Amino acid sequence: MVLINLRQMAKHQSGTIKSVKVGGELGRRIREMGLVPGTEITIQGRAPLNDPVALRVMGGTLTLRNNEADYIMVETEPED
After folding, report:
1. CB proximity list for 60: less than 8 A, separation 6 or greater
2. What is the spatial order of strands in the sheet that 72-76 belongs to?
3. Which structural domain, as residue segments, surrounds residue 40?
């Protein structure tokens, strides 16, 4: 298993959130969206300029800007 931030994940790559490294209003908003440690996520796609990123989380789809994704650490399988 490899620990990377969410921004570095490739399309269709899956992983488990290990930590959210931001506090305050942004940290609260991220956690309220269900992005908490232990949550399984899959990258659905990215906009043409790679921002924002679309995530599949708990049967729904969320979008995050890259500056928000930078704070989320995800454990994934290494890509070959």
Report:
1. none
2. 2-5, 72-76, 14-20, 40-46, 53-57, 60-64
3. 2-76
Rounded to a whole number of angstroms, the CA Rg of the chain reads 11
CATH number, position 19: 2.30.30.90
Which residue ranges of the chain lie beneath pLDDT 70?
A: 79-80
pTM of the model: 0.85
The structural domain count of the chain equals: 1
Among 56, 52, 25, residue whose Cα is nearest residue 39: 56
Token pair of 4 as six digits: 């990377």
Beta bridge partners of 71: none
